[in-house]
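Thread amino acids onto this structure.
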C-alpha cells in the first residue's frame, strides 16, 4: 500500500480490514463468516524489490496464522521462512 511506511498507520488499516472480514454475511444456506491473517513488510527496510517484499510478508503472514484467527504480524528477520528451491 503506497504511502504507508509507518507501523502505526499499517496497524490501523489492517485492523479495519480484519474487522470487516470478521463480519458475518448471508449465504443461501445460512450465515457465513471468514477471518484473515496478514503479514506486513515495509519497503525498503524489509526488501528492495517485489519478490523479496512478498516473501517477507508471506513469512510474517504464516507467523500471524500461528497466532490464530484474525491476526497480523510485522516481518522481522527472526521469522523469515526460507524456501528450499
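Threaded sequence (85 positions):
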Amino acid at each position: 500500500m503506497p504511502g504507508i511506511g509507518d507501523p502505526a498507520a499499517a496497524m490501523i488499516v489492517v485492523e479495519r480490514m480484519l474487522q470487516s472480514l470478521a463480519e458475518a454475511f448471508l449465504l443461501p444456506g445460512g450465515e457465513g463468516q471468514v477471518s484473515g491473517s496478514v503479514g506486513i513488510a515495509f519497503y525498503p527496510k524489509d526488501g528492495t524489490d517485489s519478490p523479496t517484499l512478498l516473501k517477507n510478508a508471506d513469512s510474517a503472514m504464516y507467523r500471524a496464522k500461528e497466532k490464530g484467527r484474525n491476526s497480523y504480524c510485522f516481518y522481522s528477520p527472526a521469522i523469515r521462512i526460507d524456501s528450499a528451491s
